[in-house]
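Regression test case RT-17, inverse folding.

Input:
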């Protein structure tokens, strides 16, 4: 089962091995929440984004030392005001500021969201999924460099269990495997000859 997560069929290249990893999009930001829950035991992502910029492998090895656009909400605990990080900072024009504590490489003219003890940062994504991953990984007492690998394994197990659960529920609802008619086997939405579960009536 683990081996299947390392195999990749790439157009023009063929079958090759590929290490499971947070690749792009929202993936590294979800991994950042997982790491924050596991090691900081909180949901404040401001120090986590800062550590990534300074070379931490959180949230993912591929993003070590990079400046990420924060997928987060800024909250001023003193005034109660909140806003999206992307709306507050000039994220289109990052400015280097090496060695300056609290620097995000982005600028804002809003005094309420300047880096301070009153401002914290939480994910703009739902936390249920990363919390589930963190809860599954925590009993393994993972090291930071292993979290990305362990999260991918948890997702593989969850995917396989979902397939098994779907099959069990379908059989319980009296669905049975049956090949579709020839005219439907060529559907672009389904592999040729792929069996489908068809509802059948059973006499008691």
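Golden output:
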């Amino acid at each position: 089962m683990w081996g299947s997560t390392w195999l990749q069929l790439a157009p023009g290249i063929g079958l090759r091995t590929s290490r499971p990893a947070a690749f792009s999009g929202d993936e590294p930001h979800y991994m950042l929440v997982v790491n924050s829950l596991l090691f900081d035991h909180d949901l404040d992502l401001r120090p986590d984004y800062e550590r990534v910029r300074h070379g931490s492998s959180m949230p993912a090895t591929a993003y070590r030392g990079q400046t990420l656009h924060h997928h987060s909400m800024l909250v001023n605990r003193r005034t109660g005001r909140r806003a999206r990080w992307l709306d507050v900072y000039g994220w289109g024009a990052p400015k280097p500021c090496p060695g300056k504590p609290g620097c995000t490489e982005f600028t804002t003219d809003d005094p309420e969201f300047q880096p301070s003890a009153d401002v914290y940062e939480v994910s703009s994504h739902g936390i249920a999924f990363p919390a589930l991953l963190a809860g599954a990984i925590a009993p393994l007492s993972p090291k930071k460099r292993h979290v990305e690998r362990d999260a991918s394994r948890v997702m593989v197990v969850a995917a396989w269990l979902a397939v098994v659960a779907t099959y069990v529920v379908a059989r319980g609802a009296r669905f049975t495997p049956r090949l579709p008619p020839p005219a439907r086997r060529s559907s672009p939405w389904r592999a040729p000859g792929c069996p489908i579960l068809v509802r059948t009536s059973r006499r008691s």
